[in-house]
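Q: My labmate handed me this sequence with no annotations at all. I'd like to see what the chain might look like in three dimensions before we decide whether it's worth expressing. Could you predict it?
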Amino acid sequence: MAPQHNTYHPKDAISATVRATMVTTGAGAIISGVQNTLTKQNVGPFGILTKTGGTIAVFAAMGGSYEFAKTASANLREKDDSWNNAIGGFFAGTMLGLKFRTLPAVLGYGSALAVIIGTFDYAGASLSGYTRDPTVDEVDRKEFLRKNRRIPVEQTVAELGEGRGIYAPGYEERRRERIKEKYGIDV
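A: Here is what I predict for the chain of 187 residues:
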């Protein structure tokens, strides 16, 4: 087999950053709205911007810095791997740490988010588990699994016994004989 040459195609960091910033700003606005709703005092509808508006800014900064750092590092390294996500996670974590205005918080949140996001991407980037091969037909896959894991009837009857919907071959004849022997009735 010939070695595979995966060529890297550069991505537009600015447009990806703008898109991610818009999405995370919207998410921050929703979270800010929830925070505004849960306050004990009535701050009004503009409290989303005045009282809890910092949440929107933190979300926007985290999303924008993550996407820009991830895309820029991928373009500079010319590789698309988990390290790019870890670098982006570090920058996003530092944006969260800036809210606390201490260097340990900046480095701590940056490192923590870098490890979490890098590990998540390295492990498959899925919360639903293993992704199936899209080229394999689902019906064929399930039929193969049924045939592959099927246990012979004789083994099932030997382990569980007859009854409860599990009957070995020749069950009807044995049943007729038992009924005739016990009750004297031909079935």
